[in-house]
Design a protein that fits this description.
By secondary structure, chain A is an alpha/beta fold. Chain A is 17% helix and 33% strand. Chain A has 3 helices and 12 strands. In chain A, the strands form 3 sheets. Chain A has an 8-stranded mixed sheet. A two-stranded parallel ribbon of chain A has the order 4-8. Chain A has a two-stranded antiparallel sheet with strand order 5-6. In chain A, helix 1 runs parallel beside helix 2. By secondary structure, chain B is an alpha/beta fold. Chain B has 3 domains: 173 residues, Aconitase, domain 3 (2-Layer Sandwich), CATH 3.30.499.10; 103 residues; 124 residues, Aconitase, domain 3 (2-Layer Sandwich). Chain B has a 5-stranded parallel sheet, sandwiched between helices. Chain B has a 4-stranded parallel sheet with strand order 8-7-6-9, with helices on one face. In chain B, helix 1 packs across helix 2 and helix 12 runs parallel beside helix 14. The chains are: A alpha/beta (141), B alpha/beta (415). At the A-B interface, strand 2, helix 1 and helix 2 of A face helix 2, helix 3 and helix 6 of B.
Chain lengths: 141, 415
């Protein structure tokens, strides 16, 4: 049996992408928190410290930190080190602007808490035209 | 959210891809913060410094400028990392200068007025009480909201630029009067207010920011004739140690004629007191180096007013900056022109210092100074000290104007 879970939420930035999820319950600061030259989270003590978000579906509560974040995210995007899509519990402006200027699909305010439904390694398809997230649990694909 | 016909057309691309992207940014922000509509803005301010943009950001800005988008409202720009005319004296690497000139070109094409100052209100970008504006940079935000009574959220460069080329911003946050009401009462009456220096005001701001976080502090007991320099000194560290969007000074700032009005008729959530020892502690904790040898003494975060330049020039009379130590006094190009006319520039140079425009102690000259062996920075700005240490790994000392001059002359920090 293939276990698929469908979540419905709101679009922040339109687009479609699918891939492997990387999930954290901690907010992410792009400036100072993400190294745009290798896609790794570099914030000291962060759950994802040392892990790359490049090409992944990045799931986290919301952004934090400097409003220069979109510039850093753009560098990551141009160098192929940005996530393919973003899922937030509740978006804020820094990550939202990052997604818009790079055309990265992004959704938030899903009908179920994505941090509880999605685990790192799950396969996730984001349709940010319609605000739909399809989760295939690890091992069922 | 509701969009007018014209806003819909911007979003559809009728005004070109730049304006379309700008409207997409504003609608996305409006949606996540539940804004009901867009409102017109009368002014914008953004940063244009290579530091955060990097090569890719410069390309983005150039591509955006190529779309033909133009600023619809008066738009100014924050300092960058060197003086366009003194780049040789400042030892600016040529690659660094060239890429900054590309940013300069893109901004000019967009119609951004190239002031390179964080004191845009002193050079003509002066919104009045109740005006909706879109200013990036936290110090701009807090000064506009608190001292001018204009209304702005803490914009990023993209959202400020989006507001500039559309003339709109989503109505949320600090654009709504209910979010501008004070939360925390700050009592400063225990301090010897007559004796407070500019840097004591800065230390007070830093201390209060640390305690109140993202709340709005309401200061009681400050003198009605508090100077612009002291007001700025107080304002700029509040969003550095905290995330304060605005403050009120009862009887002084425009939205706080009385204590009742400052709190919107409600009671304060909390009360705090600032004492002389709180201020002293900030000086101590802001010393982030064990080194005694000083490499750079830097003034101008916020950019020095003409009065400050005069004060520094006077303090330097008959003195000489120690061999090997750099002393920079940073201001806007406009203020520098008058400082030169008044002879302050000559006085600073005679003592071995430099009067520089377009850059500032927080604008990141450390990126190239570090390679030249500059490691220990003494400054009268807490914001500058915080970023020089946090972003560039410099050793920093925060000190009064007088102590900064002493450090420059002796080449050592001796306190």
């Amino acid at each position: 049996m293939i276990q698929k879970i469908v979540l419905k939420g709101k679009t922040v930035s339109e687009g479609k992408a699918e891939g492997e999820a990387i999930v954290t319950k901690m907010p992410i600061s792009i400036t100072g928190g993400l190294n745009p030259y290798n896609g790794k989270i570099v914030e000291k003590g962060h759950e994802l410290e040392g892990q790359s978000v490049a090409g992944k579906i990045l799931v986290f509560p919301h952004g934090k930190g400097s409003t220069t974040g979109p510039w850093q995210f753009y560098v990551a995007y141009k160098r192929g080190n940005a996530p393919k899509a973003i899922i937030n519990v509740k978006a804020e402006a820094v990550v939202a602007v990052s997604a818009i200027i790079t055309g990265t699909p992004m959704v938030h305010m899903l009908d179920k808490n994505p941090l509880e439904v999605i685990e790192t390694g799950d396969y996730v398809a984001v349709d940010a035209y319609n605000g739909i997230v399809e989760v295939t649990k690890k091992g069922y694909r | 959210m509701y969009l007018s016909n014209e806003e819909e057309r911007m979003l559809k691309g009728d005004y070109g891809p730049g304006v379309q992207k700008a409207m997409e940014i504003l609608v996305a922000i409006g949606d996540i913060y539940d804004a009901k509509r867009m409102i017109p803005v009368s002014s914008a301010h953004m940063a244009g410094n290579y530091g955060p943009l990097r090569d890719e950001g410069v390309e983005w800005l150039e591509e955006f400028a190529e779309t033909g988008a133009l600023t619809k409202v008066f738009t100014t720009v924050n300092p960058q990392s060197f003086d366009f005319e003194l780049y040789k004296e400042m030892d600016v690497p040529e690659t660094f200068r060239k890429i900054q000139l590309r940013i300069d070109g893109a901004l000019r094409k967009l119609g951004v007025k190239l002031f390179y100052t964080c004191q845009q209100f002193l050079v003509g970008n002066l919104p009045r009480k109740g005006e909706h504006i879109a200013w990036a940079a936290s110090e701009s935000e807090i000064f506009a909201n608190s001292v001018l009574g204009a209304m702005t959220n803490r914009e990023g460069d993209h959202s400020a630029l989006a507001a500039a080329v559309t003339g709109r911003t989503p109505e949320y946050g600090m654009h709504l009067p209910e979010n501008r009401i004070g939360n925390i009462l700050v009592d400063v009456t225990e301090l010897d207010l007559k004796e407070l220096t500019q840097t004591d005001y800065a230390a007070m701001g830093y201390y209060v920011g640390k305690i109140v976080g993202d709340k709005i502090p309401v200061f009681v007991g400050l003198p009605k004739d508090v100077s612009l320099v002291n007001l700025q000194a107080l304002a700029y560290p509040l969003p550095v140690s905290g995330a304060v969007p605005m403050f009120h000074l009862v009887g002084i700032t425009p939205e706080a004629p009385t204590l009742e009005e400052a709190f919107g008729g409600d009671k304060p959530e909390d009360k705090i007191k600032v004492t002389a020892s709180d201020i002293k502690e900030v000086y101590e904790e802001s010393r982030r180096t064990g080194e005694r040898k000083v490499d750079l003494v830097i003034f101008g975060c916020p950019h020095c007013t003409l009065q400050e330049i005069e004060e520094i020039a006077t303090m330097l009379m008959g003195r000489k900056v120690h061999n090997g130590v750099k002393l920079w006094v940073c201001t806007s190009k406009a203020t520098k022109a008058i400082a030169e006319r008044m002879g302050y520039g000559d006085a600073i140079r005679r003592a071995g210092g430099m009067l520089v425009a377009d850059t500032c102690p927080s604008g990141g000259p450390y990126a190239y100074l570090k390679e030249k062996g500059i490691h220990v920075v003494v400054t009268n700005s807490l914001k500058a000290a915080y970023y020089a240490y946090g972003l560039f790994g410099m050793g920093t000392v925060f000190a009064s104007n007088k102590d900064c001059i002493e450090a420059a002359v002796k080449g050592r920090w001796e306190k």
